[in-house]
Amino acid sequence: MGSQIGKILSVTTFGESHGQGVGVVIEGVPAGLRLDASKIQSFLDRRRPGQSPITSPRNELDRFEYLSGIEDNVTLGSPLTIYVRNHDQKPSEYSDLNQVYRPSHADFTTLQKFGVKAKSGGGRASARETIGRVAAGAIAEQILAHYLPEARIVAWVHSVATITCNVTDIEKIERYAVESSMIRTADPNAEKDMLQVINSAMQDHDSVGGIIRCVISGIPPGLGEPVFDKLEAELAKAMLSLPATKGFEIGSGFLGTTLSGSQHNDIFINKGQKIGTLSNNSGGIQGGISNGECIDFKVAFKPVATIAKSQPSLTVDGIPVVLEPKTGRHDPCVLPRAVPMVEAMAAIIIADHYMRNMFSKI
Fold it and tell me: Cα(217)–Cα(171) distance, rounded to whole angstroms?
């Protein structure tokens, strides 16, 4: 079962949603790096359930502990292990679901592949697995801050269902401003309508999806590889490995297919002491390698699969059943909690490729 991403900065997550705990092993963290534990906890707090009326009420504080690779907050260069204990797991809530395939969950596919699945929750397919990713992303951001102090990664909820935020100068959006929004959107004018859509879904015992946009600035040209490890391909893999994701778009994306080459080409110009481009239809990456412009991409998230509505399904023996609604502790919209997940995965990929460049020059 593959649970690892990255080559130089290698991240391996472990644990199940209703087991004793979850965590991550991070290899390749430079020795002698002083880590700020509060920044790691802050990332986890932004991801955790129960943080607002529109998120899952599961009561988890998600306090992390180091198991290896660090002393007195200074990294040793050995594998760094972070562990978060599960306190509010309730496997009994899933006892009657063990023999039923939940619509759009990973129950059927997991059982087909491995012949066994976790009896409660989603196991490795649960969003709780992302705790390890978010912790690793917080560390990757601190690595980037050490080597690339101008680097900034900011994500926000771009749309909920059909409601889309309207922002223009994307490089000036600050994380603190996004955090001031309950939905984590960058457009206060759209927030009210987004909240209304989510609350309506809650009242109807349903769920909604949407899109998260992420901008990475302050990144030098030269990150990424020209063939299979293109930087956009690595970002796409990282983002689409997150639970509930269904689409990835960078730069002009699908809209670019409606333009001519003369309209779409990013013209090179002098920008002070450096060369840049007049437009950014490429999304900051050309030929699989960063060009120094901001990296701009979007990630589509489907509606949460667990809803409090009766749905027809089948048992593992193929017998038709009606899946009755559970009281449940699930998000009506995953987007607000997914924002730090997107930022974390982006930080892991960028830090890994920066370190690949470092090692290639040794």
Answer: 7
Taking only the tens place, the pLDDT of each residue in 192-235 is 999 999 999 999 999 999 999 999 999 999 999 999 999 999 99
Going along the chain from its start, the domains and CATH numbers come out as 4-360 (3.60.150.10)
Phi, psi (degrees; rounded to nearest 5) at 247? -165, 150
3-state secondary structure the chain: CCCEECCCCEEEEEECCCCCEEEEEEECCCCCCECCHHHHHHHHHHHCCCCCCCCCCCCCCCCEEEEECEECCEECCCCEEEEEECCCCCHHHHHHHCCECCCCCCHHHHHHHHCCCCCCCCHHHCHHHHHHHHHHHHHHHHHHHHHCCCCEEEEEEEEECCEECCCCCHHHCCHHHHHCCCCCECCHHHHHHHHHHHHHHHHCCCCCCEEEEEEEECCCCCCCCCCCCCHHHHHHHHHHCCCCEEEEEECCHHHHHHCCHHHHCCCEEEECCEEEECCCCCCCEECCEECCCCEEEEEEECCCCCCCCCEEEEECCCCEEEECCCCCCCCCCCHHHHHHHHHHHHHHHHHHHHHHHHHHCC
User: Which residue type sits at 170?
Assistant: I
Q: Please indicate, yes or no, whether the overall pTM of this predicted structure exceeds 0.70.
A: yes
Tokens 């309209």, residue located? 263
Between the CA of residue 51 and those of 37, 58, 109, 114, 226, what are the distances in Å? 20, 10, 31, 35, 41
Query: Are 277 and 269 spatial neighbours (Cβ–Cβ below 8 Å)?
Result: yes
